[in-house]
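Example S7 (structure tokens).
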């Protein structure tokens, strides 16, 4: 009886696993189709300085799948990393963003001054061809490397550190800025920070969320700000949703912010409108 129960349990488990595997396969093949059929889009979320002026944007990938609706990057990026599809997805994002940056340069005005951050996954970052691909795309699109920032997470550092250093140096020598995303949530040792050529730390939204109520989160945010300042890196607070959080961060000395309090990530055209309006009339700014 117990044996039978055990067997049923295993069967049930097998069935669950099978379902999971086939769901993942389906998602992967849908994502392949998405790449071919232009179902991917890049949205942009504004990054502001202490005066509330737009200084940059983060490019965030969106997948509108006819059968599934909006699929979150938190869902499909990890899968794309595992399957290797991230290489094509990442290339598509870079090309799309750089074309956009080039069009903003041509247009002039406030959009042409923004620094646009692109998330680059560990696997993409470690491709031997990564730097030359970026170089080729800059040339192809006519975008300026000064308008580009590459965001990596601590997981990208957990490889051969010599190689990481070399890639970072190459990118920076091209004039591209480097940002360390989700700082404090990964496994990187502080020793990396002094060795690597970085420009910016992003304080993970996990530390910002409860910054008003949780003294530990406040202490961590403050420590990251102090660390960034001591190492002459800039720091951005992610996930700022309320005026209270913003004020707290300002008092801590933070000068760069991103989050729903200012704007959600927007489709490119809406983002363009937001930026041109924000610079045209300070008072009409949405935040
Ligand atoms: P991330 O790079 O840390 O991006 C920030 C995430 O926080 C975004 O989620 C953004 O929409 C969300 N966010 C911004 N402000 C707020 C806020 O005030 N409150 C809250 N709760 N969330 C906020 P999203 O767009 O769903 O992206 C999730 C993750 O997927 C990103 O985290 C990034 O790791 C990854 N991702 C997105 N686009 C790309 C891409 O093009 N390439 C790669 N490799 N990864 C990407
Ligand atoms: Mg990011
Ligand atoms: Mg982040
Ligand atoms: Mg994240």
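Recovered sequence:
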């Amino acid at each position: 009886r117990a044996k039978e129960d055990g067997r049923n349990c295993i069967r049930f488990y097998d069935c669950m696993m099978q379902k999971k595997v086939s769901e993942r396969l389906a998602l992967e093949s849908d994502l392949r189709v998405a790449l071919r059929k232009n179902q991917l889009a890049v949205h942009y979320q504004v990054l502001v300085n202490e005066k509330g002026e737009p200084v940059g944007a983060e490019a965030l990938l969106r997948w509108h799948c006819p059968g599934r609706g909006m699929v979150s990057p938190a869902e499909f990026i990890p899968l794309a990393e595992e399957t290797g599809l991230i290489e094509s997805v990442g290339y598509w994002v870079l090309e799309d963003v750089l074309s956009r940056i080039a069009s903003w340069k041509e247009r002039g005005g406030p959009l042409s001054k923004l620094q646009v951050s692109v998330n680059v996954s560990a696997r993409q970052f470690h491709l031997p061809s990564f730097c030359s691909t970026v170089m080729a795309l800059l040339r192809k699109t006519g975008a300026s490397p000064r308008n580009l920032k590459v965001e990596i997470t601590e997981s990208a550092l957990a490889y051969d550190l010599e190689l990481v250093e070399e890639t970072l140096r190459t990118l920076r020598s091209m004039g591209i800025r480097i940002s360390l995303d989700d700082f404090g949530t990964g496994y990187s040792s502080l020793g990396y920070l002094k060795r690597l050529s970085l420009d910016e730390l992003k304080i993970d939204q996990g530390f910002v969320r409860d910054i008003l109520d949780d003294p530990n989160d406040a202490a961590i945010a403050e420590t990251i700000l102090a660390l960034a300042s001591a190492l002459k890196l800039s720091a951005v607070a992610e996930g700022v949703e309320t005026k209270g959080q913003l004020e707290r961060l300002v008092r801590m000395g933070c000068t760069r912010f991103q989050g729903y309090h200012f704007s959600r990530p927007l489709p490119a055209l809406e983002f363009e409108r937001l930026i041109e309006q924000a610079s045209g009339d300070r008072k009409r700014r949405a935040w």
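Notes on this example. The first strand starts at residue 40 and ends at 49.
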